[in-house]
Design goal:
Length: about 325
């Protein structure tokens, strides 16, 4: 079984290397109805396909957070403007062409700087810093996105990759906000960007939207509960075994819900929880399946991240324990 894992690991590494080396022209930027510009697939994309790898054109260390207000935008503006003035004219023009939303009150201030709302609406946290990625900024939001992204500190790049098959000409979406909220809560978060979300999740009929809202809240609550009990455990007394069985069942329901809601950003975390809770009830076949699925997604996103290393260790531990149990059972049967 460990040999199977090694082969599995090599296949993932090969797939990761192939997707990273893919051609840069996998997307086009063009008009998107009701959204200004958008990013569209120029070729068919499979899950794990790298769509963009971009270095930030502006990166700042943000000022301290102020409770209830976030970062002081005037201080942020000073830092951003300093970097902006050092950039080539074509880079400056690319930045100033990006979407920005600001209120009338903000625009009427004597110290108003258009660069500030551009940065606020388009920048991403990148490790301990905040970076602006003009090409990635062209990707529109969806509450049911078909891509995800991560920050690679070593490469100094933000990387966007497909989380499901994307057809030629299909628009590419990311999420700007946490997705495990109701549609009303999500829209409130999106108000800072100045648009009303019309994605499939938000534009659904009232019944479907209520069902989606309920699932997302339940997913969030379930993740929080299961994470609190997510240590690898050994079944003890009957009551303990019964509790672990319930938790394993809840982890399966969580996976079903997150897949039905198509919030791929949470797949890996939920598969990891299912792996742990099935290991706790010594269902090694199911535990190894969920561990491999989580590890596959982690490798697809960032092979060098601490989370990927953790899942590699967990998957190895589950497979090794399963193999040991099979050998012990075989030995026991021989002696009997």
């Amino acid at each position: 079984m460990l040999g199977t894992f090694v082969l599995f690991l090599l296949c993932i590494l090969d797939a990761a290397a192939f997707s990273v080396s893919g051609p840069p022209e996998v997307y086009t930027v063009r008009s998107s109805p009701g959204k200004g510009f958008g990013v569209f697939a120029a070729v068919a994309l499979e899950p794990g396909s790298i769509i963009m790898r971009e270095t930030p054109v502006i990166k700042i260390t943000p000022p301290p957070l102020h409770e209830g207000f976030g970062h002081a935008m005037r201080e942020v503006g000073v830092l951003v403007r300093e970097v902006f003035e050092t950039l080539p004219k074509d880079s400056q023009a690319e930045i100033m062409s990006l979407h920005a939303y600001s209120t009338t009150t903000e625009q009427e201030r004597p110290d108003y700087d258009e660069l500030v709302p551009i940065f606020r609406c388009n920048a991403y946290y990148s490790g301990n810093e905040i970076g602006l990625f003009p090409k990635i900024a062209r990707i529109n939001h969806s509450c049911r996105p078909n891509t995800s992204y991560f920050w690679n500190e070593q490469l100094n790049r933000r990387i966007v990759y497909a989380t499901r098959p994307i057809g030629v000409g299909e628009e590419i979406f990311v999420s700007y906000i946490p997705l495990l909220q109701t549609s009303t809560e999500r829209q409130k978060r999106l108000d800072q960007y100045g648009f009303k979300c019309t994605c499939a999740a938000c534009a659904a009929d009232t019944h479907s939207q209520k069902s989606s809202d309920r699932r997302r809240v339940e997913i969030r609550q379930s993740i929080n509960i299961l994470e609190e009990h997510s240590a690898i455990d050994v079944p003890g007394i009957v009551a303990g075994k019964r509790k672990l069985q319930i938790l394993a069942s809840e982890s399966r329901q969580l996976v079903d819900a997150v897949e039905e809601e198509e919030v791929a950003d949470y797949y890996s975390q939920c598969y990891r929880l299912a792996a742990i809770f099935h290991a706790n009830i010594q269902d090694w076949e199911a535990a190894s399946m969920w561990a491999r699925k989580s590890y596959h997604l982690k490798m697809m996103a960032d092979a060098t991240s601490p989370g990927t290393k953790e899942m590699e260790l967990l998957t190895t531990l589950i497979l090794a324990t399963w193999e040991k149990e099979v050998k012990e059972n075989a030995t026991s049967q021989v002696w009997h």
